[in-house]
Amino acid sequence: MKFSSLTERIAGEGSTSWDVHYEGLARKAAGEDIIILSVGEETDQRTPDNVVNVAIESLKNGRHHYTPVNGILPLREAIARRYEARSGQQVTADNCAVFAGAQNALYAVGQCLLEHGDEVILIEPYYTTYPAAFTATGATLVSVPVKPENDFQIDTNDVISRITERTRVIVLNSPNNPLGAIYTLEQFKPLVDVCVEREIWLVSDEVYLEILPPEEQYTPASLPGADKVCVSISSLSKSHRMTGWRLGWVVAPESLTKNLKNLSMCMCYGLPPFIMDAGVEALNSGNEVAQGVCGTLTNRRRIFLEEMKGAKGIQIHSAVGGMFVILDVRSFDVSGQEFAWGLLERHNISILPCDGFGGTGEGLLRVSLCVRDEQIVVACRRIVEFVEFLHSNSSAE
Other CB atoms closer than 10 Å to residue 232's CB: what's the count? Predict the structure, then answer.
């Protein structure tokens, strides 16, 4: 039987990158002693009780019927208040559209902004689902690699030089997934300016932004003129330990949110009201949870770096943003996929190869810091042992 060309555009390395992770999960479920370091989710933590209790009471009160497809008004108002406070721009509920997580929001935005023949600029390495999410429309991906010698920071001149008459969208992700690099207002400004001048959309994926120290939470939406071109995407997954709740949003000009509402009408038809009620509670309860996540990750990053000091032939990149550290294993004669599968087979550690994060991701592996401190220590020692095994094999040859 015949499938549409869409099925080819949403397949590829990005989808296979997760094979190691799912194999690790399957073995863990079967009772094996597997440490999962391949996903950005605090598996040792739970959603705050006040948020859970609101959802339970909402269900008990019959809040399980259809809802407005763009999200209930109290939730969109809470999102608007948050973004107005952060950006200094005027933001209303009409600028907000609610989705089943940031990933769903990214896909929806791509569908409304891009089509066949358009170009979308991505900073590489990029999150593994980006190519499928944005080229599902038929648009062409244009990669702008960052360089290790520049601390994986974007060079705005490099980005601007890749703009053509077909460029419709530039996608930024700060803190970056997988690298954790944080971009500043000085880096955002020339990109906002060129987007305003050339009528290009600037999509800002800010899922990890709130787990940064407050003084480092930079958003391009705060710059003059950004309200015309900036599309901010985020969720409660990382900031409020709500990954499985699937609650994300888009903040954008009303001209876009109207189109997003029409797409949601035929795609999802609204989210469960009890989940959105919980989202209102989370947004109104302040930043204490997010800053707790930040502190936990900072401590675990320190533990990881201390334990990995003895790993020979492996470079570690550890920016302060996000939930990960990056292992560079290109000094060994193995691919990222081979390293990840070997580590799972020999030492029961699941980490994510970055082969599907663009060409510059080859030979890099993303390691999550989202398990208990003592598991971080055990995992590091197993990784060091595996590295020693690779060294002994290469010496024998």
Answer: 26
pTM for the model stands at 0.94
Q: Identify the architecture of domain 49-284 in CATH.
A: 3-Layer(aba) Sandwich (3.40)
Contact (CB, 8 A) for 194 and 202: no
- If we measure between CA atoms, which residue out of 163, 114, 168 comes closest to residue 136? 114
Nearest partner of 347 among 307, 318, 380, judged by Cα: 380
pLDDT bracket for residue 149 (50, 70, 90)? confident
Q: Which amino acid appears at position 146 of this protein?
A: V
Nearest Cα neighbor of 360 from 144, 169, 173 is 144
DSSP labels for 176-196? -TTT-----HHHHHHHHHHHH
Strands 324-328 and 35-36: unpaired
Structure tokens at 135: 């080229």
Cis peptide bond N-terminal to 190, omega within 30 = no
- Percent of the chain clearing pLDDT 70 (strictly above): 98
**Residues in the chain, total:** 397
Residue whose token pair is 């000009």? 253
Q: Which class in CATH covers the domain with range 6-46+288-396?
A: alpha beta
Number of neighbouring beta carbons within 10 Å of residue 157: 8
| Amino acid letter, 76 | R
Q: Under a CB-based contact definition with an 8 Å cutoff, are residues 239 and 256 in contact? A: no
